[in-house]
Amino acid sequence: MSFIQLASLKAHEWTHTEEKPFQCSQCRKIFTLLANLKRHERIHTGEKPYHCFQCEKRFSRSGDLKAHEWTHTGEEPFHCSQCRKRFTVLANLKRHERIHTGEKPHHCSHCGMGFIQSRSLKEHEWTHTGEKPFQCSQCGKSFIVLSNLKRHERIHTGEKPFQCSHCGNSFTQRGHLKEHERIHTGEKPYHCSQCKNRFSRVGDLKAHERTHTGEKPFQCSQCRKSFTVLATLKRHERKHTEEKPSTDGVDGD
Q1: Which of 52, 112, 129, 218 is a good FRET partner for 18, with 20 to 30 A between their CA atoms?
Q2: How many domains does the chain have?
Q3: Domain annotation covers residue 143
Q4: pLDDT per residue over 102-152, tens digit each?
C-alpha cells in the first residue's frame, strides 16, 4: 500500500502494530490518529465547530452535521440492498442490515445472548444486575427501558397520542391502537394450531388455547378456585368482596 505523506504511512503502520500514541488528558483514552483524539476531546470541551446554516444547530463532528443537513433536504443516500429501505445515516443502515443477515455482534457477558444493537444489550444486562435507571418523577417507579418509562408517564399526564383513523378513539400505547383497529378491519392474525379458530388479539388466542390444554393459571386467593381467563377470576372475586345484605331484624324459619 502506498502513501503520499510519511505521516499517513506512519499512521497506517500503527494499525498493524496496534500502537496508539495519542492519549486524552481528561479520560486517558488512547487513539491511533491525532485527528481522532482531537475529535474525541470535543466531548470534554463541549466544542461544536460545525453549524447548520438552516437552523443554526451545532455539532462536534462534520459527519454529524452532514447527516443533520439531510433532514432538511429530505435526502436519504444510504439504502438497503435487500429491501431498498433508505436511511439518512450510514450507521442506521448498518444496524438495519443485521435484520437481514441475522448478525448479532453484541453479546451478554452473563448469559451469552446476542443482540443487534448495543443499546438492546445494555437494557438486557440490566435484567441481570437489577438496575432500573429510568425513574418516574411523579410516583418514583423505576424502569429498565426508557420507552417503558415514557409509556408509564402517560398514566399521569393522561396523554393518548395514538388515534384511530376510523373512529377517533385515542390510546396511550401504539400496540393498543393496533389491536383496536382490527375491530374496524376485521383482521385476525392469531390462529389456534389445534382448531384453526382465529383471533384479533394474542391474549384472546392464549385464553382460547387453555380450553384445549385445560390450564387454569388464575386462582382465587379466597377459595382457591381456578380460572382459564383473568377477567373471569376478577368477576368471581367480586362475590367475595360484595357487601352481603343485612339480616338484622329478619326472623328465620
Answers
A1: 112
A2: 3
A3: yes
A4: 999 999 999 999 998 888 899 999 999 999 999 999 999 999 988 899 999
